Each structure stands twice: as C-alpha cells, then as structure tokens.
User: Which sequence fits this backbone?
C-alpha cells in the first residue's frame, strides 16, 4: 500500500503537537441546548407507587399524544423515582419542537382529575427561569422611553384660509397638498416616491395618514408627516378604523407566525396566543396590538372578504364581529366578550351599529344608547326579520317580520334618529323584484315603523345628512336588462305631517322625480342640501349636481324644491367624493380601474368645473377628513348672520391669490425668455448656413372640361 | 386650418420629410413604396418602387438630387429624384432603421437594427456625385458599433457642420460620435429620468431649423427633450401623456410639435378621443402646451415641419399623411411676455 506508506512518511515529518485543531473543534462542538426544544417537563402528576407506574405512564402517554407524538419507549417519558414512588413530575420528549410547543400551549393547566392539575413547561424555560440567579430577585423598574412629542397633530386645521388638504396618489408617489381651487394644489410636503405599496388612507378624523407595506402599516402625522408608529403585520391587505380613531383593525391573508429566534421574538409585537391569527385590533395611542383574532372558519379561503369585519359603536365603546349564527360583542379597552357570552342570533346575515347615540323615547341619557340593527332571512316556518338590539343589555327593542325577501340593506340616518331598511322583495315567481322601504323612528314612542311600498327596485338610497329627507335611485324591473336604455329614476323624498284623527304622524312623500337616467351613485354634501349624483360606468360617465332646497320666487324657503343645477360629462370617472366642508366635489379616473384619461377634476358644489388635471397613472384622490366642528349652535348662527362680511373677505383673498399666481407665471416666463436669449446669444452670428433657396415659381394653368352640354337653339 | 389629406400609402407611415425648398414631401410607409408629393396641393409626383419590405426611413440631399431609403429588406437604396430610378443599392446585414444625409451632402449615415444576432451599427457611406451616381462604394467608410455601456442606437442625425453624429439610444440616452473616426465623444441620459416609465427608447431626433445648434428628441417615455448639440445639455423637457413617436422644432415661431399616442396594440380598446392621437404644440421656451390638432385615428408616427414655417405634415399609423398650413391666428399668437419683450426691443433700436 504505497499511500499508507506515504502517510506514514508525512507523519514522521509533522509533529502532531504542532497542529491546532481549533477550527475543527469549533465546527463540531455540540451546542448543549441543541435539541432541548423537544423536551417538556410535566409537573403535578399523581405520585404513584412503583407498581402502578406503567399504568400511569400509559394514561399520561395517551394524553400527551393528543397534541403531538411522544417518542416511543423510555426515551419518550422519563419518570424519576424516589423511595419506590414516583415524584409527581416527568420528562417528556416529543418528536419535534413544534409538538412540544403545542403541548405547552394546550396542556398546561389541564385537569387530570379532581386533585391533579398538570403544569407543563418547556425544559429550556425551566433552565432559563428556574435556575437561581437567572431571574433577578429585586424589582427593576422598566425603562420608560422619554416622551417624544409629535407636534400638533391637527396643525392643518389652523390654516388661515381654512383650506382642506388632499392626498394625491399617482404612479408610485403620494403627496399631500392644500386644495387651491383653480390653481395647482400647493404641496404641504415633498411628494414621496414609493410611499405605499398598495394605497394610502387617512384616519376617520384626519389625524393620521397610513401607508401599507409588505411588512405592515406605517402611521404618519404632524406638520411634516413624520413617522409616528410602525405596525408590524406581515402582508397586511385591509385596514379599518374605529370612528374616533382610537383603534385600527388590520387583516392579512398570512397568519401570524412567531419568529423562531428568541431575540426577534422579543421584538415581535404578538405573543404566542396570537399564533395563526389574521385579524388584529391595534391601539392607535400606543401602537400596540390590543387583541388578535383568527378568521371565522366560514371566511377562510374566501376570495371576496367582507370588510370591515369589525364594526364599532359610535363612541368606540363596543365593537362587534359577526360569526355564523352569532354576534360577538366586545367591550373596549379590555376587548373581552360582553358578559363573556356570544349573542346568539340564528342565521344572522348582516348588522349595523347606530352611527350616533340613540335617544329613545322616555329615556334621559345625554349621550344616548348603543343600538345595533340586524336582519335574518326567511327559513322554513320563519319570516325574515329586522330587529333592533340595545347594548349592553341585549334587549331587543323592536322587530319587524318580512316575507318574500331577497335582500336587506340597513341605512342609518347619521344622527341615528331614523333607520331605513331597504327590503328587496321578489314576486312569488321570483322573476321580478321590487323594493320596500321600512322606516324605524327611534325617537318616537314604541318605535313606530312606517312602510313605503314601491313598484321599483331601489338601486341606491341615501339620507341627507342631519335631515329627515332622502333620495333614491330606482328602476322598474321588467325582466329585460338592456343597459343602454336609461331607465333609472332619481326621487327626492321629504317627510310630511299627517293628522289621522288626533294622532300626528309623518309619512314620506316624494316631491321631485328625475326620470330617464343612467346614474348609480349618490353623494350628499356632508353639510346637506346639495347632492351630486354620478353615473360611474364603463362607457359614459356623468355627474349631476342638484340643489334639494332650491329657492326662488315660485318656491319660497322651506318648500322642498329640487333643481338640477348642472350636468357634466366625464367619460373616465371611477370615483367621486365631497370635501369635508361641502364646498367642492372631486371626481377622478383611477388607473386601478382603467387607463383611460387618468387624472382628477375638481368641481364647485354647483357643478362648475374648477380644475382638471390629467396625470399619468393617477390612482387616488383622498380628502383629509376633519374632526367635528367645535362651534356650537349659537356660534354657527352668528357666522351665518355675518356671512356677507366673511364672503367679501374671502373674495378679496381669492382675488389676491389669483393675482399672485398670474404675476408668478409672468415672472417665470420672463425669466425663461431671458435664459433662452442668453443661450441663443452664444450662437448669434455663427449661423452656419442661410437657407438660400432660389425659388422659382412655375405656374401651370390646367384647363379641364367639367361638363359639356349641347343645346339646340331654334 | 383645413388639412390636405395625402392618401396613397396602404399601410402605416414611418417617416415624412420636406425637402429643403419645402415644395416636395417625401414619405415612406410599411407598404414598401416611397412617395413624393407636391406640398402646395397634395398631388402625388411619383413613387419610388423597388423595396421588398417596410421602408423605415427616407432622406434627401440639400439640392433634392438624390434621395436614400432604408428598409427592413436589408438594403439602402439610392434614388435619382428627378427620374425616380434606383441608382444604387447597399446590402446591409440587418434592417435599416434610419438614413440621413450629411448637411454637406458628402456622406450618408444608416442606422442598422440590432436583431438577427447582429450588433446594431451606425454606418457612414461616402456619396459619389460623379457620373450618373451609380459608382458608389459598397463598403462603409466608418462603422460605429453599439457601445458595451449602452443599448442599441434607434435614431441618428448629423450636426450642422457634418462633423459629428448625434445618436438616440434604446435606453433613452443621447450620444455624440465623431463622424470621421467613429470615436465616442460623450453621452447624456435624456429620457427615462423625468418619470417612472419603463420603456424609454428614443423614437425621433430632429435639429433646430435655424442653425442646428440644438435638437429635439422624442421618446416612448412620454416626453420630448430639447438638447444643446455642443454640450449635450438638456435645455427643456416637454411632457405628454402618451408615448411620443416624433418631435419637431418649428421655424419662425418658438414652438415644438410632438406626435404619438397610445400604442397601436392598445388602440382598439379605446375610443378615438382617448387614444391621444393628436399633434401637440408646445411653446419651445415656456414648455406650456398651447394646442392640439386632431384628425388622425391612429398614433402619429412622424411629423415634418415646412422649412418656411408655414405648415407641417404628419404621418400616422392610420396610413394617412395630413398636410396643414397654418392660419393667421397661428402667426399672431403671442404670450404677453413675448409681446412686451418685442415692444422693448423695437423701442430701443
């Protein structure tokens, strides 16, 4: 064997003492903690004499196998003995660390029988916390990070001209601007490229701006829109807020998985109890998760997710989730189930909270009661039902029974004085549909319900804000479905007082109808009176502006006369929105829907086009919402009285603004012209070649016989 | 402004051009026939027949004696304009995308495409005016190959003194080469930096009509750029909302005209008004859009301005050439700033 000989030769030459094996040692050292993750310690087991140990082990193994697979034989379960008896604890080895984790989660605290409760811990945890000195015995005050001021979060409201802010989202960029009517919006911050991976959103009162990223959600605020919080939620898709922006709800299609690395786990916002959950409620004041939920099983794997999944009472005090056949109502801030019980409602389809405190007849509460409405469909021996429930008492305060119902939509009036339930009903043959409107009058005694029976199908319904008037878009269902025939009707309704004997009651009467429309979208001004009705469709978009309280000589104040102020064509329109002050309507064509004429248009409330901007890959136009006004009724009256004075001031400011804009444009042009002349001066006299065309004009006269006519002259 | 419609091509126009006097319009299209038209009335003077594929480009010398066409049939043909006969044919290794005579008429450049495994080049040929023009050298004098730090050349043109070649590249850059030696001088990223468009290929390059000291490039990135020839500095950027195929600088008035539109493959899905098939006029100095001229029902592929500044011709994907002569209001249009400037100038002199 020549090779062996060679080796021996080599061995002679090299002394083994000179060789260091530190690299190899490092490579093959065994981590003493390695594999310990599979082990758990079970304490609290019965103390049994040696003879009975096999039986005990069998029982325990059976239990432990329910959450994973315990390693076979003695290596799986080791029970130390002392004095012929077991000592009440045992060591268990699972096949994988995940199984051990599951055992800790599911079996800790499990009652074996009356006397024995199992305490299950991971062996690594015992080492970590059980060894003396590992956990300090003296209390160490946790370090509270110093308070960091985020500036005044509502600074935009202090704008002297009371302008509204808008966020414009185009291609990958989001910028926040002040609306300057006709003129180019004034940037508040430098528009940010790659601001969000999906969309941007303001919180309901406008305090924060949110951007969506694959890692989670980023919250921005303050005058300079600096980062305030990061909410880690992997692959988050949907976001919603409680009405008072105390809480945020996020949903991700990916379940939360705890990182394996303990260091990362310490930074991770969720505890082991959130493992596998997809829905998170966050506390916006602290940036910490308040509660996490798994997705209800009937929603798993569904493509179209109903959103929001969590609905809030008007004051953020309660929130509710709908599950199959039950409603889960939670109290804030603990997010524990109200009275630790679900509200069982068989077959519940949908529910809505009252958007404000409800002042029921005969109750004297300043803020009003929490009320929610829900409906259940028809089933055998059971009519469809719409009901109102008081929370937290769960008392059903009103129910109505309906039949031949195909769908219900609940529309609360914004002050929660009325609830309109739009009931889509079908004829017995189920071939044609028509609608009923059921009005619950919550402020009156016993909550009377008034019914408005229509021949048409109501496509859309909207209450005028802070009013008892509403409009509907409806069409007669004749079975034929030709989309090119404009057959939609806009109807304006107002309450009318009727006296039946001694009883006063109000009924809803239509006072104006506009027929032959294509429209499908209703947008009331947030201040009422004016309404924009839109046609958002693929072929012919259109906007119509109505004044629902038009006054002239024939129609005195308070006579309920609606007038079409203006019709505007907008082919590419995909969305529309009023500004929070009710002065402007923005309509835009988003590249999320199509790539035709992307950009936005800004209209006055009367329908006058103020500004049109075509922006490549325009995506979204977001008005920054405003919190409720601080003015009380008296203040408002005063403002209204002096309106003429204020309006003069505003006109002046507008004129100055316009002047400034023109002057700026002229100055800029002058500068550009100067620059250009300076540039051209370099080439003056250097003209290389004159266009020395020697033109010679050749005129050619062509005669052509167009017509020949022969006339015989007698 | 009623246009004259020149209907003679059966397929999309690829280039239109006025001769130096402006009395003739030369046009080429994908139908392999070049046409020559009277610009005064739109009558067709004749056709140049012989190519076997799409003709991508046409150019004539300053005296309109010769005219050259570059085609996808791998040839460049030289024509005698007077008779319409083909006097010479250069065989090229790949399709010819652009031809251009040097301002001194001594040479011709040809841009060959980077396809079929060939490297894209700019080839420069000497033009022999002796005899009956048929005695041309088959081999180019200079060949400039695509640089390794750049993408292929899409368009090219000559500087006014015939010394340099300015080339537009597929990656949106504009570079300058010595036309005698082929040496690379400098380059600038002119497109793909003004927005986030992914396709930024330069589609046209045209020089200032007064002295060729600056040029305009149009690009698929929906912009056009005005660039100084000497320093390659970007002077102005004109932004549109559709990919631009062509751009021209107008004489007399300080305007530029841009043409383009939704890509042909997306056109069928949109209505005419949404396809953006309009010639757009911008103020050259103020960069404002002044107006648009409608008419084509496909993207505009090439715009040429009349050398006297009295009109322009546009060739579209729809197969038509529309020849426009400006109305009086066009010449009267002025910004207040320009008017005061002129008043001051005339007052002082």
Assistant:
């Amino acid at each position: 064997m020549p090779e062996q000989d060679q080796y021996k030769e080599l061995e002679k030459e090299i002394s083994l003492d000179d060789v260091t094996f530190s690299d190899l040692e490092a490579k093959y050292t065994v981590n003493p903690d390695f594999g310990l993750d599979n082990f758990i310690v079970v304490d609290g087991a019965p103390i049994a004499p040696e003879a009975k140990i096999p039986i005990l082990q069998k029982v325990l193994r059976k239990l432990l196998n329910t959450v994973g697979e315990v390693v076979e034989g003695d290596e799986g379960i080791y029970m130390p003995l002392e004095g012929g008896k077991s000592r009440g604890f045992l060591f268990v080895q699972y096949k994988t660390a995940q199984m051990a984790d599951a055992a800790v989660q599911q079996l800790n605290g499990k009652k074996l029988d009356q006397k024995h409760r199992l305490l299950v811990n991971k062996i690594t945890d015992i080492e970590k916390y059980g060894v003396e000195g590992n956990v300090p015995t003296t209390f160490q005050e946790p370090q509270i990070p110093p308070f960091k001021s985020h500036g005044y979060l509502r600074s935009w409201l202090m704008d002297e001209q009371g302008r509204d802010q808008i966020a414009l989202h185009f291609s990958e960029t989001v910028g926040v601007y002040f609306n300057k009517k006709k003129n180019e919006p004034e940037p508040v911050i430098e528009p940010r490229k790659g601001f969000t991976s999906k969309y941007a959103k303001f919180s309901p009162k406008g305090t924060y701006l949110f951007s969506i990223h694959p890692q989670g959600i980023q919250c921005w605020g303050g005058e300079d829109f600096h980062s305030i919080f990061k909410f880690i939620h992997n692959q988050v898709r949907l976001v919603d807020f409680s009405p008072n922006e105390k809480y945020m709800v996020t949903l991700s299609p990916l379940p939360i998985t705890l990182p394996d690395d303990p260091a990362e786990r310490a930074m991770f916002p969720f505890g082991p109890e959130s493992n596998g959950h997809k829905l998170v409620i966050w506390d916006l004041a602290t940036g910490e998760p308040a509660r996490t939920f798994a997705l209800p099983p009937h929603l798993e794997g569904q493509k179209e997710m109903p959103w929001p999944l969590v609905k809030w009472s008007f004051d953020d005090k309660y929130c509710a989730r709908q599950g199959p056949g039950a409603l889960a109502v939670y109290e804030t801030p603990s997010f524990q189930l109200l009275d630790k019980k679900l509200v069982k409602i068989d077959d519940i389809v949908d529910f809505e909270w009252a958007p404000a405190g409800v002042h029921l007849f005969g109750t004297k509460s300043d803020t009003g009661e929490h009320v929610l409405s829900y409906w259940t469909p028809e089933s055998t021996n059971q009519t469809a039902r719409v009901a109102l429930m008081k929370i937290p008492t769960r008392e059903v305060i009103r129910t109505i029974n309906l039949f031949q119902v195909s769908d219900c939509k609940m529309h609360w009036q914004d002050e929660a004085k009325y609830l309109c339930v739009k009931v889509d009903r079908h004829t017995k043959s189920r071939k044609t549909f028509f609608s009923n409107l059921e009005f619950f009058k919550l402020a009156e005694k016993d909550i009377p319900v008034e019914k408005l029976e229509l021949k048409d199908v109501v496509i859309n319904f909207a209450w005028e804000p802070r009013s008892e008037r509403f409009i509907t878009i409806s069409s007669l269902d004749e079975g034929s479905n030709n989309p090119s025939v404009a057959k939609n009707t806009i109807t304006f309704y107002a309450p009318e007082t009727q006296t039946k004997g001694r009883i006063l009651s109000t009924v809803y009467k239509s006072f104006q109808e506009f027929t032959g429309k294509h429209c499908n979208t209703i947008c009331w001004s947030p201040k009422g009176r004016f309404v924009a009705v839109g046609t958002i469709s693929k072929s012919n978009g259109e906007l119509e502006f109505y004044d629902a309280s038009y006054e002239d000589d024939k129609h005195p104040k308070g006579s309920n006369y609606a007038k079409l102020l203006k019709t505007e064509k907008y082919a590419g329109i995909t969305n529309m929105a009023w500004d929070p002050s009710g002065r402007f309507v923005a309509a835009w064509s988003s590249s999320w829907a199509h790539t035709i004429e992307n950009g936005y248009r800004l209209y006055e409330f009367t329908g006058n086009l103020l500004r049109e901007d075509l922006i490549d890959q325009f995506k979204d136009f977001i008005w920054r919402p405003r919190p409720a006004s601080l003015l009380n009724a008296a203040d408002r009256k005063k403002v209204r009285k002096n309106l003429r004075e204020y309006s003069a001031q505003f006109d002046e400011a507008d004129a100055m603004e316009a002047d400034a804009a023109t002057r700026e444009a002229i100055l800029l042009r002058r500068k550009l012209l100067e620059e250009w002349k300076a540039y051209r001066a370099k080439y003056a006299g250097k003209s290389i070649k004159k266009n020395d065309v020697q033109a010679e004009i050749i005129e050619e006269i062509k005669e052509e016989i167009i017509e020949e006519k022969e006339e015989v002259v007698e | 402004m009623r246009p004259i419609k020149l209907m003679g091509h059966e397929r999309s126009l690829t280039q239109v051009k006025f001769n130096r006097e402006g009395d003739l319009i030369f046009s080429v299209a994908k139908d392999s026939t070049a046409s020559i038209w009277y610009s005064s009335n739109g009558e067709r003077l004749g056709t140049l027949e012989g190519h076997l594929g799409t003709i991508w480009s046409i150019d004539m010398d300053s005296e309109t004696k010769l005219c050259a066409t570059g085609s996808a049939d791998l040839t460049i043909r030289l024509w005698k304009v007077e008779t319409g006969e083909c006097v010479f044919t250069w065989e090229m290794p790949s399709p010819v995308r652009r031809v251009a005579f040097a301002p001194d008429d001594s040479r011709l450049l040809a841009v060959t495409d980077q396809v079929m495994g060939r490297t894209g080049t700019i080839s420069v040929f000497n033009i022999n005016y002796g005899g009956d023009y048929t005695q041309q050298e088959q081999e180019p004098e200079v060949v400039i190959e695509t640089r390794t730090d750049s993408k292929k050349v899409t368009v090219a043109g000559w500087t006014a003194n015939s010394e340099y070649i300015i080339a537009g590249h597929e990656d949106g850059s504009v570079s300058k080469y010595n036309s005698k030696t082929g040496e690379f001088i400098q380059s600038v990223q002119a497109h793909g930096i003004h927005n986030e468009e992914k396709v930024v290929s330069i589609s046209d390059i045209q020089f200032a009509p007064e002295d060729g000291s600056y040029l305009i490039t149009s690009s698929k990135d929906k912009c056009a750029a005005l660039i100084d020839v000497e320093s390659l500095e970007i002077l102005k950027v004109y932004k549109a909302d559709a990919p631009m195929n062509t751009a021209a600088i107008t004489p007399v008035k300080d305007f530029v005209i841009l043409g383009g539109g939704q890509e042909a493959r997306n056109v069928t899905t949109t209505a005419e008004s949404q396809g953006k098939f309009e010639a757009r006029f911008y103020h050259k100095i103020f960069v404002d859009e002044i107006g648009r001229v409608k008419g084509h029902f496909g993207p505009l592929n090439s715009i040429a301005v009349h050398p006297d500044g009295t009109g322009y011709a546009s060739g579209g994907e729809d197969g038509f050439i529309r020849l426009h002569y400006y109305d009086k209001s066009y010449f009267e249009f002025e910004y207040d700033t320009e008017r005061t400037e002129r008043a001051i100038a005339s007052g002082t002199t």
Q: What stands out?
A: The radius of gyration of chain B is 19 Å. Chain B has a mean pLDDT of 89. The longest helix of chain B spans residues 336-348. Chain B touches chain A through 29 residues (CB under 8 Å).
